[in-house]
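mind reviewing these tokens:
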Amino acid sequence: MNKIGETASRTSIAVAGTAILAMILTGCGDASSGAAQNDPDADPATTSAPSQQSGQQSEQSESGNAPGKGDGAGDAPKQAVPAPQQSEGGSGSGSGGAGKTDLCRAADLELSLGRGEGTAGTQYRPLRFTNVSDSACVLHGFPGVSYVAGDDGHQVGPAAYRTGGKGEPVTVQPGQVAHAPVGFVRVQNYDPADCKPTPVRGLRVYPPQETNSMFVPAEGTGCAANPEGQQLTVATIQPGR
């Protein structure tokens, strides 16, 4: 081979070798890039930024605090304030619930008996409760009523029989009156052997839901025994009178 041909051949081999080397280097670069992306120890600044941004956008969307909407992403969630609880009933004169008004106690009240109305064998009189305290109070239900006699105030016969329903609470303002109708049966209508008529000097009265008693004078005659029927009846507390 002459020198010109030998030179051309060497040149061709060199060019081919350069091309092969370039291909090898290119392949190594791609593999290195792929390894960096899959390597858990790779730099987070180059591999994690896109996923963090996506997560932030997802959190904003779920919380409803997307920029420019609602109260803004930086505000704390608002809590609902519960409505104030309402007490039962109310205050004021006449009928009404107890609410925040205290129940009437014996010390708040003064007792009296109103004028009676007669029917066949029974006289009805209003047992009057006057509020002598400085604030309103509530009476609700039936008072306890019974005859008493003697200096020791011992009970004579059974207590008054309750008639009708319990009724509504009655708020009694200072100086105002509520009443409970009491029926006084003419004990003379009973057989003396069944009644055992006994002089009485008045009534022992327990205001509704009260454990302290009161006394109102009402001289007459009661049955010490328990005859068939009721010697006293009482209805629920009502406004006025």
The first helix runs from residue 3 to 38. The CA atoms of residues 26 and 140 lie 99 Å apart. The mean pLDDT is 73.
